[in-house]
Amino acid sequence: METSAIEKRQNVQTSHMELDEADHKILRELQRDARMSFKTIAQKVGVSEATVFVRVRKMQEKGVIRSFSAIVDPKAVGKDLTAIVLVRATPQAFPGTLDALKKLDDIYEIYDVTGQYYSILKIRTSGTEDLGKIMDAIGAIDGIAGTETIIVLRTVKEDFTVRT
Q1: Residue numbers of the chain with a pLDDT score lower than 70
Q2: 0.85 exceeded by the pTM?
């Protein structure tokens, strides 16, 4: 029997890791520039390069550091429109609804939330024509009871760092 998205979410054990001041400093440096060498980080933090290596590996294993990636400007690659979509769903179909939403490429973030909506989506696309196609695809998903779409006029603040 297949495990539903909600069951999977409830069964996920987040591995909490106690972080000391050196770990916090290492994380801040990596968030500033993930390409920074361990040697440079070690000099800034005041520990050895080997210590940085071991601590970064441990934080990766514990899931504190999920991955290293480049942050791309959406507009520079033709994703000029950002929309926030509030989703109402039928409770019985909701786990399958989440699984179907995850498969749509232009949905970049999906939040399972409380309140009158079941989830909030962040969509990036080239314009209103493509947004319309995405909304049609969302509307065709079993379990979607309705949506409310908000088009972002401008991004005032977008911060990818996590304060530690």
Answers
A1: 1-15
A2: no
